[in-house]
């Protein structure tokens, strides 16, 4: 067990718990405005315990919005990473196993796809699709499935040369079963690593889309939207932007640590299989 | 190890396997890995296929099993031509021909249990009966502990893994097993045990082996007949004792003389072969062996020698052999 | 004794984590002598070679013993001093010539490293010297070979390059770790011939690690046999093949496969080679030995001389 894996798992687990329990933990309705107490500072900056992390420019409780926002972040991260894998892995399996023309065509598609700037594509997609949490997920999947296809196809090409694959062919195993029964189990460690790293990216992209107003609907508290709203009052109440920004950084770094830690842990085993 | 009945189990005629090399930027070249091989193998017979790296022996084994597509020629299995069958049409025929690979560390899927690996052929071919019991019997027969089925390949030594691979190959009771350098990674002691096992199983399972190896000493122990390959072709073929006692092709002689005998009192003068083995990408004209041959003459540089019979079951492709 | 042995090992014990790879190995090589070190994989023979050049893979540690090169204690040397010795006085010919060469650099660049570092030659002088060395090794177009990348050469040519590198700084001890195992038989014959000629010409003490008794029979002056990390027998080559005293050596010789004989099916050595975790308290070969006695289960036999230069660690030969 390495340090990265420990830290990454701890952060990821914490986020998951917060996302599940968020609404129960939240002291206030995240959308309840209280114009009598706008821009209250957090407790350590002289605020009251009523709003531990202070309030924003509309008097909404920042802690409550942060907890609800964690739910959005985790749902987007898990869903878009999982769906990207579900799309990318089969493409990778088919391309890497079939090789030749099939591989060339599929990988050219992936190349062209990846050559479009990801952020631009996501913004255009959101503008077309409209706002909404699941639309954010869809946009991220459309942008990022190629990452899975590309990386895993490389691994499939290497695994395919292993004699156990040839042995399965010699037995007469159908190509589809070779992919699912022989190749896929050996790809699991790599897929897990990629999913973790993809979650970090997805959290960031969701925040970015919400920041520019093309993310989840305004009523749903999202860290990106909180950062955008807090931005205007940065000079008078830094916490409106600073607190969600910190949460975002912790989440992105956490998922990245998890991915890196898993990679380090799995790599020796991948090499052993080689 | 067995007799050669009239109708051969396996027959190849002028079998060729070429690979395309090069691409957009470089001119296309053909790597002629197997270049006109005709051989036959009887039921329960063992044919040793000997050659150095680059001789095409491994590709030949793969082509016979249709794991690699032939470029030309024919493959007949039990009288049926299988050269152009689709992979789907081949699937039922795969029951009859199996393979054991050189590297027992990469030929077993590291993420599957041994029981699942050995039982997979039974599942794929929908063999009726109690698979767990059949797998248990097979594992016991190849000399593995009873709990082997529940364990993973990495828990076994190289020799034991090779036994697992042999059990998988025999699960469908095939007529032909291609054994591709299966003892080359093993220590002598383990090697001997695996060879003894192969011999026992041959009689019991009535299987024929195409035994591919670079190790002349091993081939001497297991083969009924031996074919020597050089640059994609068979240069000499004979019953084992004949080949080792009266080799006729200069390459066969060089191969044999290259092995230092394990006896310090025996004089050993390794033969000089000029240069390195040529590449199957640029095959010399005339006799393929002439650039390295100690006795080559002018005609060897121009004329391709045919494989001619020079004794019972003894064929040699050399102008100067007699 | 006027001259110190070229290499002397005293009770060399190497540990890999929980496993003892070698246990109290005593060996000595006279200057100009070729010693064949044989055994099955896992017997510890490669470990001995690696310990001498002090390039043990992790987590290998020399736990006890002494290694002396011409009387000079190697274990007391710092890493810097070791580095100065390696490639100069002490050369290694590795098993796999492909992975021993860096694929990103031309042969000429890496093959001349030792000459530039240890002999202080300029690049041009080092290249000229390497061309001369390769020429001596029967490589006609050496200058062309130096221009190439490792993957562009055949296995035999790569091994020639590594041999030239090993001999480039006039070493006094060469460790050859299965140098022909990865090669084809005809190439192996050429390389063995080359090593034989080099040896006749230069008389460099060589520790030749191999599992191939045929190679040993023709190249080594003396043979040492290892089993389960222990040295079980050592003798002049002729004597070892003629009158092996240890049951394991006898078994090893009996089970050699020969191409020139179709042997009656040999049963081979019985038992599985044990792995030592601590000092052996019994003979490690007792499980596979047909002449096992009560005492074999009780104590580890010491290495005793049974004839001049012929030592055996076996209870059958402990009497005087």
Model description:
The complex is a heterotrimer of chains A (274), B (322) and C (320). Chain A has 274 residues and is an all-alpha fold. Chain A contains nine helices and no strands. Chain A has helices at 3-25, 62-98, 100-115, 118-129, 133-160, 163-171, 175-211, 223-231, 239-273. The radius of gyration of chain A is 22 Å and the shape is elongated. Helices cover 29% and strands 22% of the residues of chain B. In chain B, helix 3 (114-124) packs parallel to helix 5. The two termini of chain B are 28 Å apart. Chain C contains eleven helices and twelve strands. Chain C has helices at residues 45-52, 79-85, 107-111, 113-119, 123-136, 142-146, 155-167, 185-202, 213-219, 237-242, 247-254; strands at 7-16, 19-29, 34-38, 60-69, 72-73, 90-93, 173-177, 205-210, 222-227, 230-236, 304-307, 310-312. In chain C, the strands form two sheets. In chain C, strands 6-7-8-3-9-10-12-11 form an eight-stranded mixed sheet, with helices on both faces. In chain C, strands 2-1-4-5 form a four-stranded antiparallel sheet, covered by helices on one side. In chain C, helix 7 (155-167) packs parallel to helix 8 (185-202). Chain C is globular. Chains in contact: A-B, B-C. The B-C interface holds B 52-53, 187-189, 191-193, 196, 199, 214-221, 240-241, 244, 254-266, 268, 270-273, 276-277 and C 40-41, 154-157, 184-190, 192-193, 211-218, 237-238, 241, 252-253, 255-263, 265-269.
Summarize the structure.
The complex is a heterotrimer of chains A (274), B (322) and C (320). With 274 residues, chain A is mainly alpha-helical.
Topology:
The complex is a heterotrimer of chains A (274), B (322) and C (320).
Chain A: H1 3-25, H2 62-98, H3 100-115, H4 118-129, H5 133-160, H6 163-171, H7 175-211, H8 223-231, H9 239-273
Chain B: E1 10-21, E2 29-41, E3 46-50, H1 57-64, E4 72-77, E5 80-81, H2 87-90, E6 97-100, H3 114-124, H4 131-141, H5 158-170, E7 176-180, H6 188-205, E8 208-213, H7 216-222, E9 225-230, E10 233-239, H8 240-245, H9 250-258, H10 298-302, E11 308-309, E12 315-316
Parallel strand pairs in B: 3-8, 3-9, 6-7, 7-8
Antiparallel strand pairs in B: 1-2, 1-4, 4-5, 9-10, 10-12, 11-12
Helix pairs in contact in B: 3-4, 3-5, 4-5, 5-6
Chain C: E1 7-16, E2 19-29, E3 34-38, H1 45-52, E4 60-69, E5 72-73, H2 79-85, E6 90-93, H3 107-111, H4 113-119, H5 123-136, H6 142-146, H7 155-167, E7 173-177, H8 185-202, E8 205-210, H9 213-219, E9 222-227, E10 230-236, H10 237-242, H11 247-254, E11 304-307, E12 310-312
Parallel strand pairs in C: 3-8, 3-9, 6-7, 7-8
Antiparallel strand pairs in C: 1-2, 1-4, 4-5, 9-10, 10-12, 11-12
């Amino acid at each position: 067990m390495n340090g990265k894996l420990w830290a990454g798992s701890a952060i990821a687990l914490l986020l998951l718990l917060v996302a599940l329990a968020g609404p129960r933990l939240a002291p206030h309705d995240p959308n309840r405005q209280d114009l009598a107490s706008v821009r209250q500072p957090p407790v350590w900056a002289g605020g009251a315990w009523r709003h531990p992390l202070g309030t924003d420019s509309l008097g909404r409780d920042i802690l409550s919005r942060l907890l609800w926002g964690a739910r959005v972040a985790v749902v987007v991260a898990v869903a878009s990473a999982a769906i990207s894998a579900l799309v990318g892995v089969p493409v990778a399996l088919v391309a890497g196993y079939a090789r030749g023309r099939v591989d060339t065509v599929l990988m050219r598609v992936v190349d062209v796809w990846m050559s479009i700037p990801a952020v631009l594509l996501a913004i255009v997609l959101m503008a077309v699709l409209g706002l909404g949490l699941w639309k954010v997920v869809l946009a991220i999947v459309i942008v990022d499935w190629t990452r899975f296809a590309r990386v895993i196809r490389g691994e499939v090409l290497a695994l395919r040369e292993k004699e156990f694959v040839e042995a399965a062919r010699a037995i007469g195993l159908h190509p589809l079963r070779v992919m699912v029964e022989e190749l896929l189990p050996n790809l699991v460690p790599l897929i897990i690593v990629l999913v973790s790293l993809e979650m970090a990216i997805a959290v960031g992209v969701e925040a970015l889309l919400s920041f520019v107003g093309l993310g989840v609907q305004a009523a749903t508290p999202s860290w990106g939207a909180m950062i955008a709203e807090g931005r205007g009052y940065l000079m008078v109440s830094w916490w409106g932007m600073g607190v969600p920004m910190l949460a975002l950084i912790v989440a992105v770094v956490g998922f990245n640590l998890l991915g890196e830690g898993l990679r380090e842990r799995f790599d020796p085993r991948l090499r052993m299989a080689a | 190890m067995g007799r050669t009945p009239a109708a051969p189990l396996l027959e190849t005629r002028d079998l060729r396997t070429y690979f395309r090399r090069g691409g957009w930027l470089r001119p296309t070249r053909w790597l002629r890995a197997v270049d006109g091989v005709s051989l036959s193998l009887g039921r329960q017979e063992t044919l040793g296929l000997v050659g150095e790296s680059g001789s095409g022996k491994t590709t030949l084994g793969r082509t016979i099993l249709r794991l690699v597509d032939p470029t030309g020629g024919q493959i007949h299995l039990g009288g049926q031509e299988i050269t152009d069958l689709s992979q789907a049409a081949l699937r039922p025929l795969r029951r009859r021909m199996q393979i054991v690979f050189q590297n027992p560390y990469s030929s077993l899927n590291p993420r599957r249990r041994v029981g699942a690996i050995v039982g997979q052929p039974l599942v794929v071919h929908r063999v009726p009966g109690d698979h767990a019991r059949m797998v248990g019997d097979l594992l016991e027969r190849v000399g593995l502990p009873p709990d082997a089925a529940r364990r993973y390949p990495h828990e076994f030594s190289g020799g034991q893994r090779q036994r697992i691979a042999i059990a998988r190959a025999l699960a469908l009771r095939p007529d032909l097993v291609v054994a591709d350098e299966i003892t080359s990674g093993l220590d002598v002691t383990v090697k001997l045990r695996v060879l003894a096992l192969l011999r026992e199983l041959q009689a019991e399972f009535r299987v024929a082996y195409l035994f591919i190896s670079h190790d002349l000493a091993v081939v001497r122990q297991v083969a009924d007949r031996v074919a020597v390959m050089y640059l994609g072709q068979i240069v000499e073929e004979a019953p084992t004792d004949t080949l080792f006692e009266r080799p006729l092709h200069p390459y066969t002689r060089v191969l044999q003389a290259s092995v230092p005998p394990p006896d310090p009192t025996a004089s050993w003068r390794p033969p000089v072969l000029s240069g390195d083995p040529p590449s199957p990408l640029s095959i010399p004209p005339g006799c393929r062996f002439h650039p390295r041959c100690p006795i080559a003459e002018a005609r060897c540089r121009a004329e391709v020698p045919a494989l001619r019979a020079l004794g019972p079951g003894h064929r040699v492709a050399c102008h100067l052999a007699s | 004794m006027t001259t110190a042995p070229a290499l002397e090992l005293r009770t060399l014990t190497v540990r890999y984590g929980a496993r003892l790879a070698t246990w109290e190995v005593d060996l000595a090589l006279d200057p100009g002598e070729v010693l064949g070190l044989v055994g099955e994989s896992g017997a510890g023979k490669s470990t001995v070679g690696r310990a001498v050049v002090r390039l043990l893979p992790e987590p290998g540690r020399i736990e006890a013993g002494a290694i002396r090169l011409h009387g000079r204690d190697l274990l007391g040397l710092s890493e810097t001093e070791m580095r100065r010795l390696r490639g100069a006085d002490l050369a290694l010919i590795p098993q796999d010539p492909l992975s021993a060469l860096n694929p990103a650099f031309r042969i000429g660049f890496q093959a001349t490293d030792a000459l530039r570092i240890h002999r202080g030659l300029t690049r041009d002088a080092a290249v000229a010297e390497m061309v001369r060395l390769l020429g001596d090794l029967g490589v006609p177009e050496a200058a062309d070979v130096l221009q190439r990348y490792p993957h562009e050469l055949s296995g035999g040519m790569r091994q020639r390059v590594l041999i030239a590198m090993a001999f480039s700084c006039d070493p006094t001890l060469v460790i050859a770790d299965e140098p022909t195992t990865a090669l084809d038989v005809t190439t192996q014959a050429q390389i063995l011939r080359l090593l034989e000629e080099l040896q006749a010409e230069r008389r460099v003490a060589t520790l030749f690690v191999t599992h191939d008794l045929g190679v040993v029979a023709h190249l080594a002056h003396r043979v040492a046999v290892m089993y389960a990390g222990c040295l079980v027998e050592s003798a002049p080559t002729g004597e070892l093949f003629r009158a092996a005293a240890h049951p394991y050596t006898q078994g090893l010789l009996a089970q050699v496969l020969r191409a020139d004989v179709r042997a009656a099916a040999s049963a081979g050595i019985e038992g599985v080679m044990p792995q030592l975790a601590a000092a052996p308290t019994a003979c490690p070969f007792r499980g596979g030995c047909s002449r096992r006695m009560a005492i074999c289960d009780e104590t580890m036999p010491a290495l005793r001389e049974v004839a001049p230069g012929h030592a055996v660690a076996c209870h059958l030969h402990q009497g005087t």
